[in-house]
Automatic annotation (TrEMBL):
Protein name in UniProt: Aldo/keto reductase
Domain of life: Bacteria
Record organism: Bacillus weihaiensis
All copies of domain NADP-dependent oxidoreductase, residue ranges: 15-313
Record-level Gene Ontology MF annotations: oxidoreductase activity
Coiled-coil intervals: none
Amino acid sequence: MNYRQLGNTDLTISELSFGTWAIGGSWGKSDDQEALRGLERAMDAGVNFFDTADVYGDGHSEELLAKATKGKEDKIHIATKFCRKGDIFDPATYSEKTVTEYCEASLKRLQRDTIDLYQIHCAPFDVLKNGQVFEVLDKLQQQGKIRHYGVSVETVEEGLFCLDQSNVKALQVIFNIFRQKAIPELLPQAKEKGVGLLARVPLASGLLTGKFSKQATFEADDHRHFNKDGEAFNVGETFAGVEFAKGVELSQQLHWISEGRGNMARAALRWILDHEEITTVIPGFKTVKQVEDNLQAIEVPSFSEGDLKKVSDFYQTEIHPNIRGVY
């Protein structure tokens, strides 16, 4: 495993880490024992960072992480998120009282004294611009409840704004071959300001595995069914904002990236890791096999300059015009 420093913090984390939305809920059926085995397999391979949120399975993924990391709290770093348990548009959701309650509830589920990275979970831009929530997080940090804090954002504009907040140490952004808007401005500015970057939705909700046909269907409790057009939350969180059938078509045209890299998923993760500004990429998983396959992304060949240009050109001409929503 290779490790990268999270911005200018004291955390050095595995460049390939894992998100835990899928094992918590909203990705169809999952098996807790298989999830725990997957977490164990990841840690055995040197993964020392996991991302979660209090709404993933209503806290279930935090509880699974507590079981998996028991006795390893000083070695395994956990990032969790808050605010989406309440009304994200209500200022009271970001009050000192409410955020403290969210934080303490996460700490209890995680069975930890301190959260390594506490992140605002895709709050509206107006909330971020108000600034109150950052003052609350400063207090939680002073109290020792959180070690560092960051923001999970939906848009490049939000990310650029957060880079100007002095104590924001990490940004979590949608970044993958289907979502490259962050490259020209956000990535270099984050590096310059010493802010770590967590790349989420790295496989575009599975599109970049190349395994789907246009006829694929998803279970009713899978966000790839109930949020396919942004009905439940930001459309960009599902298939990176691309309409499913079109996304399948585009992913088929990208199959060449797998040549010499085993498969499309490993290649897509490698593409992200080839951007040095990214601290870690956080694919999800539900099975040990998925963990093992994703781990191999760190072993496959990097993209050449020519390949990077080919991917960039394809994004500009074919993908970018098909992304829906504000990003």
